[in-house]
Q: What sequence folds into this?
């Protein structure tokens, strides 16, 4: 196949950090090419150079055989390159059509100009004719399922007719298996239409399902480019390529104590229309795992346990005493800390630096006499940043400048700084690479030695591999699974079909 993109000897340095060291990367017309690597490996830097956010220090870029300089996002789009970020910026109250043409509404001329909605509808219909996919673009984006929002973001990127290269950054991170299948079908449709796709993912099992080729970055270099068929035939270990070492077991050995003190207990907990009848116990010395797909009520349950969502049924006890949280402040005082699933809007102050974000949840510890303890806070943040494996180790950088996986590490560091008795982790490793996941799982296991840990995730393997006791949530109702010895398939059936484990 013809090369649509060729990047050669690309170098990029940020101060003392050499982010890319003479990287080569190519893309064929009409292929899906997965770009893999641990956080900090250099893949995000390469993509930002390709999308015009960063300028390269050295090297050449050719598109369709012609050299190009991509000095801005506009220049990238004019060269035929479009990017869909991990968290697309969509307007929830606008329809799919309106979001696709946001900023290009084609307002009619005149003193009382209006949006040219008829033109936008015609253009949207033309897009769907070119890239057939079933979606109601007249629905409001805020009411769409996650996969339809992702499709709207892709169509927004493809509204320019000359787009030949599409970059998708972690598009499946919040999708269910069924939604992922719908997105993959659209990606195959785009491939058939001649669009080349660069697909960034930390879900390595997806590589063999959807990608034609994959490239692995490590330490700012391209260490391997293989076809999926070739890698499968040779039994290539992608984790070993990423880590430059034999793949270790992701999950630490279980050593939970079934007789530990009950620190958090819920009986018949419910919120109308969201979840109901939830009974659970979280004990010191163990990890309780709760598996539930997107929309199962897991996220709402986590907020209820943290006081961010009022319940209308049931009781909650903390350390044996009934608790009625009026808000997260009460939960924090009681020793409950939530690491939320949406780190950007619920877990971080994106414009503030790492030290601020790490210490902000415990101002009593971070200050003395009404003044912040800058030196002590810095030392504490340095230790926690090392514990969670933050890369790059730049504590003065705004958290918006870190990758999604590293932002997640900062939220977890914030929880560790709080020194709570009960930790609730929701989707704790979304966007986190395989090496960092092993480190975070070990950290959670170590944390469970002194606290009660609850892990809520839509990743069945994560819950099954990490927890001492497990349960599932299906359409807002709890489905009991006897214990972690229940098979992974039983837990999956409980969360997907509501089937009880035998």
A:
């Amino acid at each position: 196949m013809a090369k649509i993109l060729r990047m050669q000897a690309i170098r990029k340095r940020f101060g003392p950090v050499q982010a890319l060291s003479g990287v080569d990367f190519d893309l064929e017309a009409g292929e899906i090419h997965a770009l893999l690597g641990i956080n900090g490996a250099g893949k995000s830097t390469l993509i930002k150079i390709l999308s015009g956010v960063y300028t390269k220090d050295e090297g050449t870029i050719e598109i369709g055989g012609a050299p190009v300089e991509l000095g801005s996002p506009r220049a990238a789009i004019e060269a035929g390159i479009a990017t869909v970020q991990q968290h697309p910026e969509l307007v929830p109250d606008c329809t799919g059509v309106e979001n696709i043409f946001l900023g290009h509404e084609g307002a009619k001329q005149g003193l009382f100009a209006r949006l040219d909605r008829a033109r936008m509808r015609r253009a949207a219909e033309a897009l769907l004719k070119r890239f057939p996919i079933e979606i109601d673009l007249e629905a409001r984006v805020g009411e769409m399922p996650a996969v339809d929002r992702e499709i709207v973001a892709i169509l927004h990127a493809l509204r320019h007719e000359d787009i030949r290269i599409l970059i998708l950054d972690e598009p499946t991170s919040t999708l269910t298996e069924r939604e992922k299948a719908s997105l993959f079908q659209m990606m195959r449709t785009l491939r058939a239409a001649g669009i080349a796709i660069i697909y960034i993912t930390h879900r390595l099992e997806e590589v063999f399902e959807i990608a034609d080729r994959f490239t692995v970055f490590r330490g700012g270099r391209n260490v391997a480019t293989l076809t999926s068929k070739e890698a499968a035939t040779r039994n290539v270990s992608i984790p070993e390529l990423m880590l430059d070492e034999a793949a270790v077991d992701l999950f630490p050995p279980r050593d939970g104590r079934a007789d530990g003190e009950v620190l958090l207990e819920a009986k018949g907990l419910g919120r109308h229309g969201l979840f109901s009848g939830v009974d659970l116990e979280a004990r010191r010395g163990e990890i309780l795992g709760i598996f539930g797909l997107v929309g199962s009520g897991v996220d709402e349950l986590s907020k209820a346990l943290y006081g961010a969502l009022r319940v209308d049924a049931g009781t909650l006890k903390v350390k044996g005493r009934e608790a009625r949280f009026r808000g997260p402040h009460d939960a924090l005082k009681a020793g409950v800390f939530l690491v939320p699933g949406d780190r950007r809007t619920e877990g971080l102050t994106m414009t503030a630096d790492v030290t601020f974000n790490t210490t902000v949840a415990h101002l009593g510890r971070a200050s003395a006499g009404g003044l912040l303890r800058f030196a002590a806070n810095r030392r504490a943040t340095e230790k926690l940043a090392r514990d969670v494996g933050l890369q790059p180790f730049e504590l003065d950088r705004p958290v918006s400048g870190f990758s999604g996986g590293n932002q997640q590490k900062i939220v977890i560091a914030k929880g560790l700084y709080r020194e709570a008795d009960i930790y609730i982790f929701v989707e704790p490793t979304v966007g986190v690479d395989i090496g960092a996941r092993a480190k975070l799982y070990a950290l959670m296991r170590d944390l469970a030695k002194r606290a009660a840990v609850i892990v809520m995730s839509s990743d069945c393997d994560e819950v099954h591999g990490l927890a001492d006791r497990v349960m599932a949530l299906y359409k807002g109702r709890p489905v009991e699974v006897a214990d972690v010895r229940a098979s992974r398939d039983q837990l999956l059936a409980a969360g997907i079909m509501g089937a009880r484990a035998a």
Q: What stands out?
A: The first helix runs from residue 43 to 50. The longest strand covers residues 3-14.
